[in-house]
Each structure stands twice: as structure tokens, then as C-alpha cells.
Prior knowledge:
Elements: E1 8-12, H1 17-28, E2 32-37, E3 48-51, H2 57-71, E4 76-79, H3 94-119, E5 125-130, H4 143-163, E6 168-175, H5 181-188, H6 193-203, H7 212-223, E7 234-237
Helix pairs in contact: 1-7, 2-3, 3-4
The chain binds nicotinamide-adenine-dinucleotide.
Nicotinamide-adenine-dinucleotide is lined by residues 12-13, 15-19, 37-39, 53-55, 80-83, 103, 107, 130, 132, 175, 177-178, 180-183.
Amino acid sequence: MSDFEGLVAIVTGGASGIGxxxxxxxxxxxxxxxxLDVDPSGLPEGVLxxxxxxxxxxxxxxxxxxxxxxxxxxxxxxxxxxxSAVGDVTDNSDQEWLHVLNVNVVGMVRVARHAVxxxxxxxxxxxxxxxxxxxxxxxxxxxxxxxxxGAVYALTLAMAADHLREGIRVNCVAPGxxxxxxxxxxxxxxxxxxxxxxALNARQPMGRMVSADEVAFAIAYLxxxxxxxxxxxxxxxxxxxxxxxxxxxxxxxxxx
Length: 256
Ligand code: NAD
């Protein structure tokens, strides 16, 4: 496909996992891609890496301006940078709450704030935010992280309403557990990483985690000029986790 030919895209958190897969997907479909990341190393050839922390408004503004100066336009923003948090409501300090919300929610706001003036000049502008299954499904020990992604869901709908009439479509994807370096790091802190990995796979109705490429494909779908009627939508990429209720594989015998 070459649906992004001639378009310029920013992917935040694009140096790893879902963001990296998205940068590769968009580039492969014709876009000029810039990755904004705290560590924009190891990017594929032709992808512009710009060092920027989404918690720093001045850095974000400078990075967005750099992309616009380099390519002369901006059409797509993938607001993907995010960090995890583990714990129930008694576990995380105020400082942790403020930091995670700062990265996962206000970080998207900062990028959008500085990108929108450029996006207004695009004939096919799109913003795709990376939300999560945890915005709808209660998961144990994910209180703070879930609150941040619930905010991303609401933010997406509000942004979609605000910017629809000026030609900027805003949508989000809601991945289930995705097999990225993020999950490797979480598993690495457990006593039995392989057992935990098996449990994460089993939690998904399709029996395995989602891949970064599968999420990237959904992000590219929402960002594509071909998806011009998709706005204010939340596209699940969760292997059935949100909507399906399967019997355990061991109890599949009888049908009635
Ligand atoms: P990852 O850790 O592999 O990649 C995250 C990237 O974001 C890294 O390159 C990191 O350097 C960058 N980053 C972190 N903080 C940043 C900051 N302050 N400013 C700029 N860049 C920053 O993670 P991933 O699994 O690819 O996750 C990407 C997004 O997908 C996140 O928003 C996450 O919440 C979401 N998500 C992940 C999963 C999952 O199971 N992996 C599931 C649902 C949603």
C-alpha cells in the first residue's frame, strides 16, 4: 500500500515496541516519519529521530517545529509514548500518580497542542492515541495505569469533537497485552517470567498476546487518508479480550 505517500507523520515513543512497529508500517506505506522519543536510537534508516521527552513542553514544541521545518508539513500524529505502573490504590505515591499521568495523558496533550496548528494545514490530518484495554476492563494491580488510559479514552473523544470541523480526525487504539519490550521488562521483575508469560497469553481469548505489528496495522488504518469517515472511534486490538467470554480451553467438550 502507498496510502501515506507524500504525508509526514510523527510517532511518539517510536523507538521501541508498538511505536517502532508503527514507524516502520507508516514508512513502508510511503510516509516520511519522525520519531519523538527520550531515546531515539536504533531507528530504521530514513526515519528521523528527534530526542524529546513528552513531559517537557519546550522540548515537545522544538521537536514538532523541527519536523515541520525538515519536511514542510505535518499530516499524522501518533501519540503513543507511555509508561507502566503496577499496584492497587494503596501502592502508588502521589509523586508516581503525577508522573504517570504527566507522561501518559498530559504528554499527549503537549504533542497535540503543538501539532494542531500544523495539522490544520493538512488535507488529511489525523491523530491516533494509544489507549488500552484497561480503559474498559478492570485488571488487577493496574489502578494508576488504568486511570491514565481511561483519561486517554475520554481525551480522544473530546479532541475528536473539537477538531472534526477543522479537518483533523482523532481516534485511538485499545491494545490488549502486547508482546513488546515493555512486557519483557515487567516479566523480568517476577520470580517466574515464563510462567507469567504463559498466564498473560492465556488471559487473551485468542490464547496469545497481541503483536506490536498488529497494533501498528490498526494505528495505520485509523491514520490513513482512506479511513476518512472514522472519527472518535476506539479500535480494539485485543484478541477478543474486551468483548468475548470463552469457556476455558479445557472445558470445550460439550456444545448445547
Ligand atoms: P515500550 O516500552 O516498548 O515503548 C515505549 C517507548 O516510549 C520507548 O521507546 C520509550 O523510550 C518511550 N517513552 C517513554 N517515556 C517517554 C517520554 N516521557 N517521552 C518520550 N518518549 C517516551 O512500550 P510499548 O509496549 O510499545 O507501549 C507503547 C504504548 O502502548 C504505551 O502508550 C502503552 O501504554 C501502550 N500499550 C501497551 C500495551 C502492552 O501490553 N505493551 C498494551 C496496551 C497499550
